[in-house]
């Protein structure tokens, strides 16, 4: 299925202005795209379930699975993807392209308790 | 066939050595969940409540389990001697013997405990070769940690296995009780909550409560990581980072330094790893702590009475990255202090307390880099540890009131087996490996003033072998582009395969893992480790000792048992 991915391109190294001890600062470029349609390329972290409406997008393939191993840790710059419809997720470490509406700000997933700062919602993805 | 009835489990376990006056939780688990009337516990034949001066609680079917629990929390025994604890219910019974020990009068005012996390003999030997040089088999000098008058072989096993982890092993040093993998300051009982297991008091809590001493906890890992956490924590699960931050706040070590700031930040702050809105940076600052986030701020904070240094969101970068390769997170955190800076600042602050101090200093990435099969980074951090030890020795030598101990917490299966020489004929890694006299000596440049060769990618390199590994590609070379990631997640869940990015390096050898398929990294080993020590009390280290003896020697040197 050829899926059109529309939106402003957004890259992992554009997300944050700084990674400080007192917290991270979101970049101006990111904040300018808040609420707008974006496209991001990255890697799907090993998912919790084979089929879901939720996965974590990372800039580099993860060596470990933070969902599975308590001693593994998420990288600082992750983006949480909420799909428009639940879908079969690809294996961990596969490159994907995602498009959807950019959502920014602290939010706790009521189902999993997962806290995120940057999300793409109403999203669709394809292998890239 | 009927199985023999399962006996009760009594915590602290059999052969526990308990410092007179130190607090612990007595717990007895009765299998089969008997009623209180049927469950009996005695200490030396008497009611434990009378011996410990505290009343017991009885929890039938604790946590819904098929057992009942008898508890006396926050107990202590001040009279030294042998104590026999017996438990019985129906035809089931169990007994353990504890030794409650005296310490005599104080011999030392201060203790500095250096922990080289995972530091094995090969790390130490390689650090000596790189930082002192070797000519005709003779070293050009001594490591500070080697040049100490007392030495012992330390066994690191836990209550559940020969090979243990850094939580349990560090907890043995800081509480004097062995426990199980992943546990800090608790025995591993059947409680469901990780925070409810039977506790034993840590040396930080003891010296603050009994003696008003100061406490320092210094590391280059996240401050919540197992070894530093062992100074304050009571949890069955070392990954309870947010609880551990609270435990640091409850104990309030006067000096705390490391990485790991995200667990101090409220969850609404970007970069937080908390699940609540507690802001521990603000809490510590309100409690009088000076916050330092860089080497520059640390230098400016030496006048503070209480110091919280957080220098990285994760682990502080290792010496090889900070000083030479500029990889890891050095671009994000360009002004991180060295362990030597941290020790100097700690001694400045802690030595102002006339009642003395206990300082733990961990070089924690020796272990982490050994897990990732990245020996050069591990050895540069061994040299860094040695530089920090030198500062403590200089401090202690001028005073003769400070016990200095240098000890690993467990080993890694590592060994120096020869040398790789790029000029040897052939294409394969095995062609490049020389053993015995075919290896000769490596050609690392002479070390700089801090003991580090300024180049690790030389043509004749140490061949440093790992005895346990996942599938990976061995390049026989240092990882100049960043810490080695030997394996990555495989196609099937919880399996790991070689990280192919190293497999295309010329000469790389594909190694079939010898660890279980779910291992992504190297593992610890059960080998004994080497302790060296100096100062009053150090003479108690000799021969082979169990890891819990390190606590007992520190407690004895400080004379922590209440005077009879």
From TrEMBL, chain A:
Protein name, entry field: DUF3299 domain-containing protein
From TrEMBL, chain B:
Q: Which Gene3D superfamilies match?
A: Alkaline Phosphatase, subunit A (3.40.720.10)
Positions of Mg(2+) binding: 117, 225, 227, 362
Q: Per the record's keyword annotation, is Glycosyltransferase included, yes or no? A: no
Q: Which residues bind Zn(2+)?
A: 117, 367, 371, 409-410, 524
The answer to whether UniProt assigns keyword Transport to this entry is no
- Keywords of the record: Magnesium, Metal-binding, Zinc
Give the matching InterPro entries: Alkaline_phosphatase, Alkaline_phosphatase_core_sf
Q: According to the record, how does the cofactor bind?
A: Binds 1 Mg(2+) ion.
| MF terms (GO), sorted A to Z | alkaline phosphatase activity; metal ion binding
Q: Where is the active site?
A: 166
Endpoints of the signal sequence = none
Tell me which family the UniProt entry assigns to this protein: Belongs to the alkaline phosphatase family.
What's the name of the protein?
Alkaline phosphatase
Species this protein is from? Reyranella soli
